Amino acid sequence: xxxxxxxxxxxxxLFGQQITIGRLSMAVLTILGILxxxxxxxxxLLPRYxxxxxxxxxxxxxxxxxxxxxxxxxxxIGILWSFRLDAIxxxxxxxxxxxxTLLEALLILQFANTLEWIFSKVIVYNYxxxxxxQEEEGVDSEGIAKTSDRPxxxxxxxxxxxxxxxxxxxxFELDYVLFHFE
Length: 182
Hints:
Layout: H1 3-7, E1 10-14, E2 17-20, H2 21-53, H3 57-83, E3 88-91, E4 96-98, H4 99-131, H5 141-147, H6 152-171
Antiparallel strand pairs: 1-2, 3-4
């Protein structure tokens, strides 16, 4: 028995799909990859970043939760693809909506939410702290955070969510022509 025959051996059926050793191996590798990435991002990189940027505790929990949800969604999509369990929820002549399509839309929105937070809270905050003269007591981070939410943060929010909507429409294969130019 060669290696390809080994990975093609059927273990069991799940929702009408044959689960082989190869598919199970891909699912296990996906889970291990997501756990490793989670450990790297949430355990090592993010705490260093939070300390360097002096991020408030409430914002730390919010960003950590958002990144954790992103990683879970990626892992769930990977498991669906590895077991080929990506069921069709709706189909017509123009579009096909699968479970993974909805999960991709959630992933895009969550990623946009995280990017919007990073841009509005960190970059705008750093911009204001560099512009203000440094006092001996330091910069009032609470005051800057309150004033930097809008209008600059609002522009970032609109831009990030507009890109997210375009990506979601693309993932749903909704390619409607709004205007014809001749």
